[in-house]
Structures are given as structure tokens and as C-alpha cells.
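Long-time lurker. I teach an intro course on protein structure, and each term I like to show students one example going from raw sequence to a predicted 3D structure in C-alpha cell notation. This year I'd like something fresh instead of my usual example. Would anyone be willing to generate the C-alpha cells for the chain below so I can use it in lecture? Attribution to the forum is fine with me.
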Amino acid sequence: MVVTIVLVEAAHGAAPIRPNPESLERATPELIKGLRADPYDYLRFANRSWIARVCDDFGRDLEGLPVIRLHGDAHVEQFALTRDEWGLDDFDDSARGPAVVDIVRFLGSVDLVARRRSWQQERDRLFDSFVGGYKRGLLEPDHLPPPPDIVGRLRTAAPATRAALLAWGESKMQPLADASMKAVAGGMEAFAQIMLRERPDLGPEYLRVVRAGSIQSGVGSAVTPKILIRVRGPSDDPADDELLESKKIGDLTGLSCLNTPMVNPTLRIIDGSKQLGRLMHNILAAGPELMVPEMMARGERLQDWWIRSLDPSYSQIRLAGLRSVEDLAAISYDAGVQLGAGRLQDRTVLLSTYDRKRLLGATGKLEKRYRQEATQLVDDLLQGWRELVGR
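-- Reply from a regular --
Happy to contribute to a lecture. Here you go:
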């Protein structure tokens, strides 16, 4: 497939969007090569800078917007599926803030995909799909669209197995020193004691560590410390072992329009997954303190880790899998529904019809602005990407 990238010059002297300098300094040469090769990967890597720009550009309008639960990094390639579920996943940057953060982020990703695939003439229709889904989710939070066709294609293309997932995990684990392995095992023992209070069905040996190793994966979270942990699972049979991902939370401090908790900050990710997410994880919880010497030597803090189990049937949409504008429109509509419906939930109840309409009106007043902002930010993003390519 030939990919065409249409570069539009930024207007009105807008500043280029550049990744967080600290993240760029920690990026591997392989990651830098990938960022230079693909502006969509650059979009994924520069989320913090993107949010900062949205906060600044909408600053005077935010007082009239409610503070709600955000995905924090909603874009096309965050759309994922398992054997039974589908929708936006990866709530690493979930926080509380104004709805425009998620809206502009997803619309920006749609705009960039349209440029890459020479679908620019369909951009307004694609925007309409997302906004239409978002509005329907606001007004009908129980509405669940049928899965987009691309979900069915991916489910039948390469059925995944637990054996394949475990083999993948083994291939990706980078060995840890003995002291670090002891730290991981000790942390997981403490984690198991806490989990068993909530999940006695797991049994006392379920979370016993079989093997563990650090891993470098992802794009947006590529420089975030991560450890893969293979645990015993329900029996001593290695075939039913479970693979867990333990991940350090990202730093969202300093983003003016986000509200992040100072106490138990990891819960923002757990709450985001539960309040907005559709994909269920067998294990999803705040993790233990991991006193891993290799990471401590790099200045990584010991706390604020979270853990989730990996589903063998899990996969994420990739741009190369989009066969047509209709595929992108269907994903956009579905993601809009999910964000519109999920953001109206607190921990226990749905808001009233009156409150849903009030929120719809508050965000609707800015609809023209957030459509324009998404396109302008993509212009600015591509300007920053060209700088990186030219280095």
C-alpha cells in the first residue's frame, strides 16, 4: 500500500508541536527512527504537548465546561478488540478535565489519517461521524453500536491463543538482575495479599511469579518503565499461566486544564478504565512499589505502578488495516459513542437526562472551534515532525 502524506503549512505563525524534551532524550535510536518515518507515531508520542496546547487555546472557554472523566489520549489506534469486546482502550493518560481534550485529540487523529490516506475531501464527513456518535452517547448512554466491520475482519484474520501470547511475552522480556527479580517477586507477594481480599477466587498461588523481565513497547508510552510478569495462574500447568503488564504511570503534572489526584494517583487509570472502558481485564489494579535496582539507578520513583492482565485475543487497530473511509467513519462513530456515554458516569450512577442535555449544550457551543482546532493542531504537529525529520 502506498501512503501519501499531505503536509499543510501551519497558519498564523502557530508554534510547532514538539514532544516533551525529557521523553525525547530517553527515546531509543530505534524509536527516533520510527518517529521520523511516521507522523502518526509522532502524534502518539507528543500527547503531553498536544494536551498543553489544547489547554492553552481553550483557556478562556473552560470555565463554562464541566470537569469530567477523560480518556486523555483518544486516537484512532487506541481502538482495540478482544474476542467479545471492542472500543477505545489504553487509559494511561486518563484524568479529569474538559471534554474538549478528548474531542480535539480524536478529531486530530482522524484528520491526520485522512491526510495520510488521501481522504482529505472526506474529512468533514469523518468529523461528523465522531461528533454524531459523541452526541448520541451523551443522550443515550446505553446505546451500543454494532462492531465496525474491521473488528470482524481482525477477529477472523489471525485467531490468537494463550500459547502464542505467552511465547510473545517470553520473547519480549529483557532479563532482570537477581536483585531486581527478588524485588519483583516480593512486590507481587504483597500485591497478591491485597488482591486476594477482593478476588478470593484467584487462590493463594495464582499470582506467584514464574518469570519476569523489563520490556520496551508501544509508542506513546515507549519511554515509560514497564515489566512483563508471567504468573502461575489457576494451576501448575504452564499452559494456563497468565501474563501481566506492570507499568509506571505517566507524569501529567503541569497540564493546566487537567485535574490529577495527589494521593493514590494510579487510581486515575483504574477509574478511567472502569468508567469509560468497554474491554474487561481479569486483573486491573494499582500495583505494588517495585524497588527495581536497574530502574532506581535511572532515577525512577518506586511507587505509582499499575498492573493489568493481557488477553490472548487482544489487538489494536492499525492504520494499515483501514480499507476505506467507511472503516474510519465507523471507528470514529463508535469511539464518539463510547466517550459521550462513558464520561457521564460517576462511580455509581448515570447523570439525569437534564444534566446530559446541559453537557451537550455546553460542548456544542464550541463545536466549530474544536473542529478548527483539531486541524490547526495537526498543521502544527506536522511542522514539529518536519523539524525532527530534518535533524
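Some talking points for your students: The first helix runs from residue 21 to 26. The radius of gyration is 21 Å.
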